[in-house]
Structures are given as structure tokens and as C-alpha cells.
Design a protein that fits this description.
Length: about 450
Amino acid sequence: MNSLRPSGKGRVDPPKGTEVFVQSVRRMGGLAAVATLATAIAAAVAISPTAAMAAPATPYFSSTIDSYAGYDGQEICDPSAKPGVVGFKDLLNSTYGSHTWGIVRDCSSGGTSEHKEGRALDYHFNYYDAAQRADAADLRDWLLATDSYGNKHAMARRLGIMYMIWNNEIWKSYEASAGWQPYSGSSPHTDHIHFSFSWDGAKKRTSWWSGGDVLPEPEDVPISGDWDADGDETVGVFRPSNSTFYLRNTNSGVATSVFKFGHGPSGDIPVVGDWNNDGKDTVGVFRPSNSTWYLTNGTTSTDMEFIFGHGASGDRPVAGDWNNDGTDTVGVFRPDVSTWYLTNGTTSTDMEFKFGHGPSGDQAVAGDWNNDGKDTVGVFRPSNSTWYLTNATGTTDVSFIFGHGPSGDVAVPGDWDNDGDATPGVRRPSNNTVYLRNTNSGGPVDMEFIYGI
């Protein structure tokens, strides 16, 4: 039996089939007929489920739509409510009336939860209340409906919903074709619906918040290192959208090592170094939001964690063997003052000097430019495609043009031919192409290949 639902201003449609019955009653005539009609309609209303309120108001969208959110569970603790989650909560309150809700959870509470990253919402509908159960069904149907272009689960995708749990069932964006599946967690979720969001959804980077435009994923960030201790450095990329490193042992072909480390949507910037003097480079990330470094001697385990620099000042991370002891340590380049802060350990500043001209958009680089066993710094200036390198601290020892900065070239130096000298390389995002050179001078490209997306 259909619910009585608004069908126009000041009018409510009767249950389906009532129109035929009305015509029959009219032919009967008399007060008895009217009484019979009233009784029949009352009975129809009594056995209908409680009507839900209208679904959230939906803007006009083009056919372009976001991809399904992949699973990206909690990895850090940052219990601040993210704007996309707050915005979704406000949307629900404006549609269904104010309800109890919760977003953040204390870091010390047990278990893993996106609440601890501020990208989960518990919105309190009570399954055992008929009206609230109807509202919950209305919301679920709206989120998972196919739009006019044939896009399945359209609003869930546009909002970046990763999964939701209600009344012992779970819907997963990353297993969308399976529909609602049984859920057997410790809470049956009968007093609230749980929503977990992708980082794009949590940070309002989805089409619901961008007026229908699907924002591009962040570009792959190029890195280089000697991943297998053979003396040759090769190119890899860090993909911020999924916090994943794609590495390979030759400057050609597909990735030979793929793993997740860090949390790119939090703004993580990749770094590379030999952190334990075993002859092999491994990765790490610098998180500007808290000026914290997370380094690994393998792939997925965090072996070192410490604070150095001041990310809020726009610090850019570098790593190198500053004192020729065989172990790489970190440093930051602060563009607004063109100043480098390097450490031979973790938290102490062992060197501080000016080099480069950060307001010109200089990109920080580091390497052993003269094969003396010690890494020093340099900058790549995209505005004039020029590299400025120093073998000490404040003096420019080498200057040359390589790359084409206005095309968005990103610097990625390395020892490409195992001769002990780090030399320039750039990755051009417009065509995903890497251009490498074996000498610290202007001139032709020695290697060229496509890598990353």
C-alpha cells in the first residue's frame, strides 16, 4: 500500500486504487455511501507506513560523476571535524529536522575508526521509531538511486561516501555491486546511521561541493632512489590520492614495488633516503600540518617519527647525507625566507643558511653534485627552467638550464648512471614524461620515458 505523500501544493493523493472505489461509491449515493468511503480511506491510511519527508534538495549535475570511493581506513589521529562531513550533517538537519549526531572520537578510545580523523558521521535515526525509520529509508534510497544519466549510487559517489552502516547492514562503495550486506559489528546501528567518507569527500573535493565539476586527482609526485642497493638510482612516484608509492628498479617498464605509506590527503610530501645506512633507499613522508616526519626502513611500517621544521610556514622537505656518515637525514627549505634548516639527527638544527630565492617558486633539491660523498642542496627555478646548485652552503657552484618549467616541470635529481654524481631530471605532468640528464650542465636529454598518471 502506498503512503500518503505530498503530490502538489495543498493536495494529498489518496492511496492507489482509491479513485476506482470512489466512483463506485458515488454510484451508490446517499449518506451510507459517504460513510463507507470515509471508513475505507481511514483504513487505508491506518495500515500505510509512516511517510518520510522529502529527500535532500538536489542541484542539477552534468553526466560527469565521481568514481566510487575506495577503502581508506584510519591511519592517523586528527580528531577535527572535516568540512565535507559537517556539510553533510547540516544537509541532513535541514532536510529531516535536527537530530543528535557525532563526528569526532578521542584518539585514546579503542579500535580503528574514521571518527578519529574527523571523516565519519553518526546521525541518529532510531530504527524502532516508525517516522525515523521512514526518514532513514528515504535518505538511503536517495543516496543510492541511479540518476537520470544512468549513474548508479549517484549521490553517494558525489558526496564521497566510503561506506554506511544501518540496522545490522553495511553498504560499501568499494563493493557497490554487492548492495547492502550483513553487518555483525559490536553495535547493530539501530539508533544511528554511520557514514564514513573518503578524504576527497571529507575535504569537499567531490562534485557535490564543486558545483558538479569532478576535481582532478592530485598529480603524481616524482621521487628517486636506489631501491635495490645496486648503485643506480631510478624514478618512482608517490600518488597522493591513495597514499601509494610506485617504485621500480630500472628507468623503464612498470612498477616493481607498490605499497601504501603516509596519508596523502593530509598533504603528505614524499621523501627518500637511506635512513639506516644499509645501502638501500627507502621512503618517508613529511606532513606539513604538524611538521612531522614519518620514515620507514622497509615499506609500510613507521620506523621513525619526529617533528622538525615548521610546515605552516610552507616548509618543503629534503633529505641527504649532510656529513658523509652514510646515513641520510632530513631538512627543510623555507621559501618565504629562502632559508635551509638541516639536521644530522632528528630534531636539532645543525645547519642554517640562505640559498635560492623562494618567492620565485624555487623547488628544493638535494644531491651529491660533485661526488665527494656529501649531499648538498640546490633549487630548480621553474620560471626560467634553471638549476642553481651549491657544493657547500651559500654559494652557487653550478648553474644551468634543463627542463621547461612553464610546462609545470617538477624537479627529480638522481645518480642515473652510477658514476657517483647526482644530476638533474624533471617530470612533466602534462604528458607524464620524465627527462633525465647525466651531467650537471645544460644540454640534451639522456633518457626519456613515461611514468605515472
